[in-house]
Amino acid sequence: MLADLAFHLGARGWDVGVITSRLGYESSVLGPRSSEKHRETINGVDVRRIWTTRFGRGSLIGRAFDYLTFYLCAFLAMRSERKSLIVAMTDPPLLSIVATLAAPKVVNWVQDLFPEVAQHLGMRVPRFVNRMRDWSLRRARRNVALGEAMAKKIGANAVVQHNWAGADLGPAESRPHTQFVVGYSGNLGRAHEFETMLAAARALPDIRFDVAGGGAQLERVRANAPANVTFRGYSPREQLAESLSSADVQLVSLLPAVEGLIVPSKFYGILAVGRPVIFIGAGDSELAQIIREHGCGFAVEPGDNAALIAAIRNLAQDRAHAVELGRRGRALYDARFAPEIAFANWERILTDAARP
User: Fold this and answer.
1) Diameter over CA atoms, the chain
2) Are 139 and 106 in contact (CB under 8 A)?
3) Which of 52, 54, 95, 344 would be a feasible disulfide site paired with 70, CB 3.0-4.6 Å?
4) Domain check: are 159 and 197 in the same one?
5) Integer Cα distance of 274 and 326 in angstroms
């Protein structure tokens, strides 16, 4: 999404630069790997890859050093661009604090609310961290939230702009298969719930469950999965449409405790490829309401194994209904979440935030 927006703005004549790490997402997950150039121009966008340690996510201490060195070098890089409008992401966490210390004009693109996510998942975070983060959000020109629930939690200077799928993502011609396939694509993180999915897989041995991705819960899920659950790694971007389209229905999950703190971005990709969605999460959540309102899938509460089993059986026995739900999802995507809509909104947000 960052690449899509940066390249769009560059093509529209904006002067765009990106400050990022030399580690890619998969290299930070799977281990240290350094490959790309330290500085280059891509599609008119100046990309600066700053130095960090390269311990990866194998240990908390190593990961902390990676974050700290990134914060320091990112601060220096942003300080050199302090006359520019800085858009700060939320990975690594608390980058809004570093950006606010470095430059006066900041827009925070809030993908998740930290430290609240960590606190709801049982981690102890000192209160001053919350206060510093709140200070940085109040100082920002704008805080871009992914949904109404998140915007309410942020409060200060918050505007809602949903994410989108890749600018080139659409339905792909999937390989024909007779067995009904339920997919899960993306991060298997601590904020997601998988017991309900595993219970459904055990109750539906004739259905194949295809898990594509990785994360903190991958090994635990793999160890408890029945034989009809298959696992594979993250798909390259150019193969994502084919990967998402290879399932008849895609699952999205989110623990109710982190509702409004995280919005699962995989939801937009599922809509884009025209597949029905089954959301495992709070019944009164924003995502569940969108699914019910537009009739593009099902929403079930975590632990409601019977409801998930019934939803999957419903779609497996009536594939025409599954196709219709996917068609409605794609229509919703075109109407509300398409990249061209998001890009136009982002240009308005940035133009407004850049004013004196």
Assistant:
1) 62
2) yes
3) 52
4) no
5) 4
For residue 152, the tally of other CB atoms under 10 A from its CB is: 12
* Same-domain pairing of 8 and 102: yes
Are residues 121 and 251 both part of a single domain?
A: no
Give the model's pLDDT for residue 349: 98
* Two structure tokens written together for 145: 């939230």
Q: How buried is 41 (Cβ within 10 angstroms: 0-12 exposed, 13-18 middle, 19+ buried)?
A: exposed
Alpha carbons 82 and 39: distance in angstroms, whole number: 19
Residue 296 located in a structural domain: yes
Tell me the CATH number at 99: 3.40.50.2000
Helix (H, G, I), strand (E, B) or coil at 248: coil
Per the domain annotation, does 193 fall within a domain?
yes
Same domain, 185 and 245: yes
Low-confidence ranges of the chain (pLDDT < 70): 25-36, 167, 172-176
Q: Is residue 327 part of a domain?
A: yes
Give the pLDDT score at 176. 62
| Beta strands across the sheet bearing 86-88 | 86-88, 106-109, 142-145, 158-160
- Identify the bridge partners of residue 259 per DSSP, sorted by sequence position: 262
DSSP labels for 180-223?
A: -EEEEEEE--TTS--HHHHHHHHH-TTSEEEEEEE-TTHHHHHH
- Domain containing 212: what range? 181-336
pLDDT tens digits, residue range 14-52? Answer: 999 999 998 876 554 444 445 568 999 999 999 999 999
- Those residues whose C-beta lies under 8 Å from the C-beta of residue 131, and which sit 6 or more positions away, are none
Residue 14 tokens, joined: 């904006």
Instruction: Report the SS3 class of residue 56.
Output: coil
What are the backbone dihedrals phi and psi of residue 162, each rounded to the nearest 5 degrees, phi first?
-65, 155
